[in-house]
Design a protein that fits this description.
Layout lengths: L1 H31 L2 H7 L4 H29 L1 H21 L3 H28 L3 H32 L3 H19 L1 H4 L11 H21 L1 H29 L6 H25 L4 H18 L5 H29 L5 H29 L2 H20 L3 H4 L1
Helix pairs in contact: 1-5, 1-6, 1-7, 3-4, 3-5, 3-9, 3-14, 4-5, 4-7, 6-11, 9-10, 9-14, 10-13, 10-14, 10-15, 11-13, 12-13, 12-15, 14-15
Main location: membrane
Protein name: MFS transporter
GO cellular component, one term: plasma membrane
């Protein structure tokens, strides 16, 4: 009887975990296709738009450490509630305000919410289930998130055609449900236990210093790992302008509405999924494959700048997303294979830090470039950068790493 009760409780934990993840990612899905267009509709130029977008990224980057320490100190239920409240504040600001200053405040709240969420929910489900069950639920989570992103993206396009700010109303409703589940359901499912150790913010800062120090010395000794981390960062740098500017460019075509942009978002997610399947079934996961696909992706980005017909540009963007579906698993595989097992966690953390910095720099630099010249110019520069770096870094290492 006790075992059956415990099993039911664990099932509820897993369901609530999936619900909370889907509700949190609903914001990214419903705003993903139209958020940049929303900022443009409030008379922000490309530089201001990219700066607003970058604020959440850099906030999440710097808050990752203190929010982790705070989650350990307060407990995961309280920080989950705080995550939902911050997401509510974000949506309320976007729903009722129209100044860049308040948009920055909203993005700061979003960045902190993302920093809290990144570890809170995973840690909560691990503490309240077995290791085997938590591993299974993590795989299931990714499938659910993929579905919710597609559905929410399509919804966002339709809603935006009626009222552009309506996307934030629906996102606010999802955020309120997130808070409700955190307040009323999570405490009932929380296990009775004592944590083995609580880490202070100083402990986390010292841990970050160790990651950077150890990674730097390891990369100095291992040229191939240094090249892979540099290449992963260049990928982030090169992809950023396409991620930010695809919707404004498509929307500039005649007769294109928000619903069509939402449908484009759905097809883009599907194209990436097809890329994942092709890689899994037919392509070899090697440095040689990564090299070839990266050069092709760079050429594709350059080509986007010269496509002046809607359907040609849309097909070009789908090709880009398909290539991303190949590149993302490839670069993870190549990096993991190249790292010694004793250093894997440290180097992966360092790789994420460097890639985040490159993403932030790209947002600001490409926003300024688009303001001075054109969006197409940012694509040309990004594509050329990717082709050159792919050739210089990857080709000499093909024989050694393939």
């Amino acid at each position: 009887m006790i075992e059956r009760t415990e099993a039911k409780k664990i099932d509820r934990v897993k369901k609530i975990y999936l619900y909370l993840n889907c509700l949190f990612e609903f914001y990214a899905g419903i705003t993903g296709a139209t958020f940049i267009l929303f900022l443009y509709s409030n008379h922000l130029d490309t530089m201001e738009t990219n700066t607003v977008v970058a604020v959440s990224l850099i906030t999440a980057f710097f808050m990752e450490i203190p929010t982790g320490a705070l989650a350990d100190y307060l407990g995961y239920v309280k920080t989950s509630i705080l995550t939902g409240i911050l997401l509510c504040i974000t949506n309320i600001i976007f729903l009722f305000c129209n100044t860049i200053t308040l948009f920055v405040v909203a993005q700061i709240c979003l960045g902190i919410a993302c920093a809290f969420e990144s570890g809170t929910l995973d840690a909560w489900v691990i503490e309240n289930t077995s290791q085997k069950e938590s591993e299974h639920i993590f795989i299931k989570k990714n499938k659910y998130i993929s579905i919710i992103m597609i559905v929410a993206g399509f919804m966002g396009g339709i809603i935006a055609d009626f009222c552009l700010k309506g996307i934030f109303l629906f996102a606010l409703i999802a955020s309120l449900i997130f808070v409700g589940l955190s307040v009323f359901i999570m405490p009932k499912l929380q296990g009775s236990f004592e944590r083995e150790q609580k880490y202070s913010i100083l402990d986390n800062v010292n841990g970050m210093k160790k990651i950077v120090s150890d990674s730097f010395h390891y990369c100095i000794k291992d040229k191939s790992i240094r090249n892979i981390i540099l290449f992963n960062s260049v990928l982030t740098f090169a992809f950023s302008p396409v991620f930010v500017f695809w919707s404004p460019v498509l929307y500039n075509f005649e007769y294109v509405n928000y619903t069509l942009i939402g449908m484009a978002w759905v097809f883009m997610r599907a194209a990436m999924l097809v890329g994942n399947i092709v890689l899994e079934k037919w392509l070899r996961k090697s440095f040689l494959t990564l090299s070839a696909v990266s050069v092709a992706c760079g050429l594709c980005i350059i080509g986007l700048a010269f496509l002046k017909k809607f359907w040609l540009l849309f097909l070009g963007i789908l090709l880009f997303e398909f290539l991303l579906g190949l590149i993302y698993p490839l670069k993870e595989t190549v990096l993991n294979v190249g790292i010694e097992s004793t250093n894997r966690a440290t180097i992966l953390s360092f790789n994420s830090l460097v890639a985040s910095l490159f993403n932030y720099v790209s947002m600001i630099l490409m926003g300024k470039l688009a303001t001075i010249f054109t969006i197409e110019m940012t694509w040309i520069c990004s594509g050329i950068t990717l082709v050159i770096i792919s050739t210089v870094i990857l080709v000499p290492n093909i024989k050694k790493m393939a």
